[in-house]
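Trying the structure run again after the queue cleared.
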Amino acid sequence: MCKFSTLPEFDKELKKLSKKYPTIISDIEDLKPILITCPTGTSKNFTIMKIVGDVQIVKVRVHCESLRSRVVRLIYAYHKDRIEFVFIEVYFKGDKENEDRERIKEYLTGI
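Done. Tokens:
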């Protein structure tokens, strides 16, 4: 069975973004069945950023209905050994240029 979880920082970012972009929560929910089928994606919208053992850190562009033709970036860890997804970060590129690499490093250190 597949499991999804989030980091507390992700939850805070999502809550803040959902005030500006009300569909973002349902847009991320729509992504989950895709991840279950193909955990690291099949299109140019998915980028594997780092592989550490059985963990892959992936950045995906998620279409956000509230942004019309624009996307938000979602960073997640895929644990192949236990079929688990951990959402690490979500951001809109218009608000923030790049992912928080320090957070990713801290996450990988803690696993």
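The chain has one domain: 3-110. Worth checking whether this holds up in the mutant runs.
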